[in-house]
Amino acid sequence: MTKRSVVVASAVAVSVVGAGAAWAAWSLTGTGAANATAGSAAELTVTNVTVTQLTPNVTGNVVLTVNNPNPFPVRVTGFTFTGLTKGQGEDCNVGANITFPTGTLSSTPADLLVPAKVGASNGTKTITYTGSIRMKADADDNCQGAVFSFTTGVSANSEA
Q1: Measured in Å, how far apart are the chain's first and last C-alpha atoms?
Q2: What is the full DSSP assignment across 41-85?
Q3: Distance between CA atoms of 38 and 1, rounded to whole angstroms?
Q4: Residue 95 pLDDT
Q5: Is the pLDDT of residue 73 over 80?
Q6: Whether the Cβ atoms of residue 136 and residue 57 lie closer than 8 Å to each other
Q7: Which 3 state secondary structure label does DSSP give 37?
Q8: Given this model, what pLDDT does residue 120 score?
Q9: Cβ distance 82 to 49 under 8 Å?
């Protein structure tokens, strides 16, 4: 090897080693603190509640629409029916003639999924709760044509 070749090889070796050292000098890390805030779930609403016509010894269905204003889907897990009252001036004893037996949901479990809100539109799902209201077999004659009112509630879990 000539003297010139040794000088060039040495210069190349120094350049490569120097480049490696420069690269190592640019490897950096860092950390920082962060905070995250969880959102709050908005209440579901129940609308468009209808009931099949009640007659003695007949179990009816409650049909309702669940409205979900949340940005995530929810699965309905239960129903409540409370505050049963009769119309003004009607002589039907609702407590003795109307009951809310445990019914069977006509919807399959997948059908109890209420979609998430999209844009300005709430997610909605119409559900039929089969066998959820009943007029007793020996209902008073005063119950003919009576109008009954009650409050319908739902419980649900997020399905996000």
Answers
A1: 72
A2: PPPPEEEEEEEPPP-TTEEEEEEEEEEE-SSS-EEEEEEEEEEEE
A3: 71
A4: 87
A5: yes
A6: yes
A7: coil
A8: 94
A9: no
pTM of the predicted model, to two decimals? Answer: 0.74
CB-neighbour burial class of residue 160 (10 A; exposed 0-12, middle 13-18, buried 19+): exposed
d(CA 67, CA 45): 5
Residue 2's pLDDT is what?
A: 61
92 close to 140: Cβ distance less than 8 angstroms: yes
Cα dihedral: 85, 87, 88, 92 (round 10): -80
DSSP readout, 89-156? T----HHHHEE----EESS-GGGGEEPPPBTTBPEEEEEEEEEEEEE-TT--GGGTT--EEEEEEEEE
Question: Residue 72 pLDDT more than 60?
Answer: yes
Tokens found for residue 69 = 């204003």
Q: What count of Cα atoms within 13 Å lies in the side-chain half-sphere of residue 155?
A: 5
